[in-house]
Design the sequence.
């Protein structure tokens, strides 16, 4: 149901846990703006990664700056739980697609 986003890739010799459902936007987003949009539409989302500088034990790392920045500005976690039904999945997808259409130039 989703368009203009990428999904997790299962690499050889790995197993997907399926405990969270992440999407990666093709263009940079403002997470706070997207989160507000989704909340206004009764959908709770989460950041995939919080910036590493928010973690005291990682304060001195420099090498992950680019990776972390990219993840926090492109990847989000959508709702995922056992009772999520087809109607809800379509609604969440509609809202993500609508956000893409309104705010992201693909």
Sequence:
């Amino acid at each position: 149901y989703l368009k203009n986003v990428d999904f997790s890739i299962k690499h050889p010799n790995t197993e997907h846990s399926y405990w969270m459902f992440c999407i990666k936007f093709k263009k940079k987003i403002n997470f706070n703006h997207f989160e507000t949009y989704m909340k206004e539409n009764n959908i709770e989302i989460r950041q995939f990664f919080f910036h590493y500088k928010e973690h005291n034990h990682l304060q001195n790392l420099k090498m992950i700056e680019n990776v972390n920045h990219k993840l926090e500005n492109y990847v989000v976690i959508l709702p995922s739980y056992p009772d999520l039904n087809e109607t809800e999945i379509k609604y969440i997808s509609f809202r993500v697609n609508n956000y893409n259409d309104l705010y992201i130039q693909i």
Notes: The CA atoms of residues 7 and 105 lie 19 Å apart. The two ends are 17 Å apart (CA to CA). The helical segments are 31-40, 65-74, 86-103.
